[in-house]
Amino acid sequence: MDIHVINSDWKAEAPDLMGFVTARLKPCTEGTPYVFADAYAAEGLLEILEVRVARGERGILVMDCSRAQVQAVLEWGTCDDDGQLQDLEIFLVRRADQRPTNPA
After folding, report:
1. What is the number of other CB atoms lying within 10 angstroms of the CB of residue 94?
2. C-alpha dihedral over 23, 71, 81, 47, to 10 degrees?
3. What order of strands is seen across the sheet that includes strand 34-36?
4. Cβ proximity of 98 and 67 under 8 Å
5. What is the signed CA dihedral for 40, 3, 8, 53, rounded to 10 degrees?
6. Residue 93's beta-bridge partner residues?
């Protein structure tokens, strides 16, 4: 499993992040591979990701993740003991207000 965490300031770095990420996602048979994280708590996000994976999706873009959601998905990603998720790729786009600040 590959998990990519993308800072929310992507608009300044890559104006078409959605297009870039979507092009990298593996085609899925049902629906779009987007999840809007603000609709879920951390545990709920993990549940919806598990549902998507069970449907056969192998590339998922998760928009507007909180710090807790990113951490939960990263921890979930380390629990794949049997290798069933090795071809899964998840892109987590963090919320703007969740970016770490650099003390000067």
Report:
1. 23
2. -70
3. 2-6, 89-94, 59-65, 34-36
4. yes
5. -40
6. 6
Which pLDDT tens digit goes with each residue over 27-45?
554 556 789 999 999 999 9
Q: Rounded to whole angstroms, how far apart are CA atoms 50 and 15?
A: 30
Q: What is the pLDDT of residues 61-76, one digit of tens each?
A: 898 899 999 999 999 9
The answer for residues whose C-beta is within 8 angstroms of residue 46's C-beta and 6 or more apart is 72, 73, 76
Q: Letter for the amino acid at 54?
A: A
Single-letter code of the amino acid located at 24: R
| CA atoms 2, 46, 17, 97: torsion sign | negative
SS (H, E, C) 40-83: CCHHHHHHHHHHHHHCCCCEEEEEEECHHHHHHHHHHHCCCCCC
Contact present, 38 and 64 (Cβ < 8 Å): yes
Predicted structure pTM score: 0.74
